[in-house]
Specification:
- It is a single chain.
- By secondary structure, the chain is mainly alpha-helical.
- It folds into 2 domains: 34 residues, no CATH class; 273 residues, MetI-like (MetI-like fold, Orthogonal Bundle).
- The protein is built from 15 helices and 2 strands.
- Strands 1-2 form a two-stranded antiparallel sheet.
- Strand 1 and strand 2 form a beta hairpin.
Amino acid sequence: MTEIGQPPETLGHSAADVAPASPMVDGVAVGGQELAEATIGAGLELKARSQWSYARSRFLRHRLAMAGLVLLVIIFGAGALASYVAPYSFDQIDLTHSFSSPTLVGNHFFGTDIEGRDFFSRTLYGIRTSEEVGLFVAIVSTILGVIVGAIAGFYKGWVDNVLMRLTDLVLTLPALAVLLTAAALWGSGSQWNISFILAGFFWTPVARIVRGVFLSLREKEYVEAAKAGGAGDLRIMFRHILPNTLGPVIVNATLVVATAILTEAALSFLGFGIKPPTPSLGVLITDGQNNPDKWWLTVLPGLTLVLIVVCINFVGDGLRDALDPTQRRVRA
């Protein structure tokens, strides 16, 4: 029977089992602050990782997103460098090779059209046109939507009501009919006119997203602290709140690129978009409809358009998973 006050050694346990010894560094027992300083001195300090570093690592583990990004860089890179990559000019006519099927002879990888123009070269230039439209629309519409949503969500009240009713008005318009009318009146076949028209419609989703985030963040403690510190409204909006909305904004901008490219191709296919001789994927598909027996004139630019959109959607899906702070598992 153990008596009260009996030392731990007599209970079958050593003192080290009851109270573990402090770690030894260079033969000296250290603990607490001394251990932290010794660890740092040994070069074993832990570096804090930001949310962006976690998002980057999650995105890099997303296999479909990485595959889509690589293919997208290759396709867009070939389009941007079409003047150097394309074996021919997009308007170079060679009537001796009219309607040649896809072949390696003469570098006519996608065949030729009725005027003997190399269709692979025209597809590369069409990619460049569609790429310019998609990126321009994404950038302009995102900037406009962020500004409108930030002002509406931060100030609330009548400012919010006016801006959101304007947003709802744009959302309720029949998009295709208005786009066709605007393109017929102001498009004039220019890719930049078409881009401005599309940007005027695509800013509404990001405006609603940013407004919702601003409404939830404007009452946070760090915002109140910034106000108490004398920070102005613009500094609070764009320095303290806006960085916390970049996740959904980036994902939305990525998807807008694909939507703008598809919309421009649809307008060009209907004859209200970019006009020849400027090549775009929609124009190329339309030209191929005039000769349905020449399958390569429709199928190859159509497959290129589908591949671009699929890659963008994969990248957008990966960004959504990576930038979601509640996401703990990479889905692909």
